[in-house]
Amino acid sequence: MKHFIILLVLGAIPAWAQQAKIVRGPYLQNFTSTSGVIRWRTDVPTDSRVYYGKELPRNAKSVHDARLTTEHEVKISGLQANQTYFYSIAKLEKVSNQFVKTLPKPGSQQAIRIWALGDFGTGSKNQLLVRDAVKDFVKEKPIDAWIWLGDNAYGSGKDVEYQKNVFEIYQEDFFPNTKLWPNPGNHDYKDNPDSKKLAYYQNFTMPMNGEAGGLKSGTEAYYSFNIGNVHFVSVNSEETSEDGTSIVDSTGQQAQWLKRDLAANKLPWTIVYFHEPPYSKGSHDTDTDEEMTKVRQQIVPILERYRVDLVLAGHSHSYERTVPIRGHLGQNESFDPNKHVFAKEIKPNHYVVDKSSAQGTIYIVAGSGGQLGKSQPSFPLKSSAFSTVALGGSLILDIAGKKLVGKWLGSDGKVHDAFSIQK
Ligand SMILES: [Fe+2]
């Protein structure tokens, strides 16, 4: 009775029954050829409803979750591969930027486009320019997957920083229709000493049970997935696993999973990404940094053993691309092109590889998506094919059948580096 009177006095309806406002999202997670997760945040707790269909608002299907929450996470399934579905939240309507194209069938040779972005959530002018350059560049051929290389939200990966420097920056053009596969950096780990409580884990949904292809990891900290004929592995260079080891222990929990995952992969292309690079002379020096030296010594041999094609990282606020290298576990000075460069055929910026000969791995640091930093006096790496800290930018990868083309798109909208690998 007392509550009833208070409600009458305030003329109030319970908060959850009011028209809730979406304050974050929608954004897309874990999308495969048949299912995916749509997430968003509301200002007050409500139930969750998503309408979806190829011809929205006609012939709509819907998923409803009656639980009241501000953090909405709805899985839609039973989708067909390679199809564009529109979706709406709470109300059946067509919203022009809310759509998702499902992935091609696993193993498909069709062309896919990847956008890899590192060290971006700063709120800087560079971040906006890099974003706008990509928005313009992908008009004709949209992005199939958006890969983050860590240090997503500065300075400490806090939820408010994710809101201001990440969600608000990319919401209009990318989040509602770009399938995201995140990776954390050291700044994202500053949010909380207890890694389980990081905003990074609260905000994102990763495939921990092998549901997007790849081997079950059992943790959101690291995971793998497949798109068409490419196998992707998101390795975590920041977290200590339950057995007390980290990625720099080649016999630890994560490294063991990485070996099993790579061994099980049957797809022709493999791209591995994590935050802290094994080779950099940008704002971080992999000759003097103990952690990154260990990544090189402990993890690079695993990547080489399984013929990983590309390794993407951030951390240094630069763009640095090596030639295809193998067996270069020492410091930069020890690099010898006669000993460490491997491909069946090498032309400037074009590499032919096949199983009959040893294959090098191309290592890319793409950590200037928002940050833009200094470099070491010995910049660039001796193994560098192209490197710059003069400009921010991000990486676009186009993979079709047996050809991969990589382009580093600067914040000025121009392609400054282009390379290709032919299998
Ligand atoms: Fe970093």
Automatic annotation (TrEMBL):
InterPro entries: Calcineurin-like_PHP (IPR004843), Metallo-depent_PP-like (IPR029052), Purple_acid_Pase-like_N (IPR008963). Residues 112-319 form the Calcineurin-like phosphoesterase domain. SUPFAM superfamilies: Metallo-dependent phosphatases (SSF56300), Purple acid phosphatase, N-terminal domain (SSF49363). The keyword ATP-binding does not apply. Keywords: Signal. Residues 1-17 form the signal peptide. The keyword Transmembrane helix does not apply. It holds the Pfam family Metallophos. PANTHER family: ACID PHOSPHATASE TYPE 7 (PTHR45867:SF3), PURPLE ACID PHOSPHATASE (PTHR45867). This is Metallophosphoesterase family protein. It comes from Aquirufa ecclesiirivi.
